[in-house]
Amino acid sequence: MSADWHIIAPEYPPARGGVADYTRLVALGLAARGTRVHVWAPALPAADAPEPGVEVHRLPGRFGRRALAAMGGGLNAAAAPRILVQYVPHGFGMRAMNLPFCLWLYRRRRAADISVMFHEVAYPLNRNQPLRHSVIALTNRAMAAALTRAARRCFVAGAGWERLLRPLAPAGCAISWLPVPSNIPVAENPEGVRAVRRLLAVEGGLVLGHFGTGREAWIADTLAAVAATLLRERPAASLLLMGRDSRELRKRLLVRAPDLGARVHATGPLAPDALSLHLSACDLMLQPYGEGVSTRRGSIMAALAHRRAVVTTDGVLTEPLWAQSRAVALASIDAAALKSTVLRLLDDAGERERLGEAAGALYAERFDLAHTLAALAEVNQA
Q1: Distances, alpha carbon 229 to alpha carbons 84, 224, 340, in Å
Q2: Is the Cβ–Cβ distance between 242 and 275 less than 8 Å?
Q3: Among the four residues 4, 77, 88, 89, which has the most C-beta atoms within 10 Å?
């Protein structure tokens, strides 16, 4: 059996979050290939459910001195451990400025084989922001510089992050783009999907869906503005909001359009199987992102994996593959453009079908978890 993997993550189930779900997928995928996996993550009140091949080590605090000592003891007992860090600057405590953690990893670079997955790199830096934000942004860049010097190989969840990371890294640093997969397995249950549609769809109408967090103000405001006018122009259409914050999103939309309450639905948190049925029940997904769609967005990955036709936004972080693949309908970051694109697709069943097929093909070709596991296997062989 190959050497164990040690995954250091800011969150792990039953904690909720995209990084938690992604880390679990990777841990289980590595374990299924015959590798013993250790996950180091902050302590939780809830107990961990046993999973084959994965041992979860809960740490005191949030990657402070006691946590580093506990991890150090475990790693020192392993022979040349392989470490994979699931990195977001704000995930490791100290108000997103845990430079000591990054320096701790740097000091271990000769005793361990370290890889870092950058889900994010650094807080934005611009001339007019408050001084506190500039301090965070500059400290984040120092953290990234330390991590790229600690790691034998770095991964970025979105291609746009490489442009930010490369100037901070030493010459010759190996940085690879490794998109995140969907964390919602596709449930093959046609009758279950039909049952969901019977609860949602106005007779003869289509279901427009949105999946994702409502904590990003631009997304929430854009959805509220676009969906309200869309539903008024398409009285047979309904809207399904999915995700932990979906009920809050629904309330926000209905402040603008209280008359639409019967056609706006929200799931709240759902188990993966139930969420899969709701995703599959949608005829068209509306997934706007303020910086543009990118491969770091797990919500778009879930839509692609479920072969849904998607309308999304083209912005500064949007990789060329989205236009090249023609697997999603791209609109400019503008409410009027989004509305126009959605209306066109609601009226074009053939194009919705084509987009759904292209979405599934793109996901299998570029984003499936197998690609992540293959990239980590290459790290092991290098």
Answers
A1: 46, 9, 11
A2: yes
A3: 89
Q: Is 316 helix (H, G, I), strand (E, B) or coil?
A: coil
CA distances from 366 to 103, 197, 245, 308, 354 (A): 33, 30, 29, 16, 18
Backbone angles phi, psi at 188, to 5 degrees: -85, 85
In terms of C-beta density within 10 A (0-12 exposed, 13-18 middle, 19 or more buried), how is residue 286 classed? buried
Q: Residue range 297-315: average pLDDT?
A: 97
Q: CATH 3.40.50.2000 spans which residues of the chain? A: 5-178, 190-367
Question: For 41-69, what is each residue's pLDDT tens digit?
Answer: 999 998 888 999 999 999 999 999 999 99
Residue-wise pLDDT tens digits, 13-33: 999 889 999 999 999 999 999
CATH code for the structural domain at 190-367: 3.40.50.2000
- Amino acid (one-letter) located at 341: T
Crossing angle of the two packed helices 217-233 and 335-346, in degrees rounded to 10: 50
Question: Contact, 248 vs 213, CB < 8 A?
Answer: no
Q: What are phi and psi of 266, to 5 degrees?
A: -135, 135
Structure tokens at 198: 């019977």
End-to-end CA separation in angstroms for the chain: 17
Place of tokens 């009027």: 336
d(CA 301, CA 45) in angstroms, rounded, equals 30
State how far the Cα of 39 lies from the Cα of 23, in Å rounded to an integer.
9
Strand partners for 242: 211
Tokens of 238: 């309904």
Topology annotation, domain 5-178: Rossmann fold (3.40.50)
d(CA 70, CA 104): 12
Residue type, 168: L
Computed from CA positions of residues 91, 94, 98, 100, in that sequence, does the dihedral angle turn out positive or negative?
A: negative
Structure confidence at residue 203 (pLDDT): 81
Number of helical H runs and strand E runs in the chain = 14, 13
pTM value is 0.91
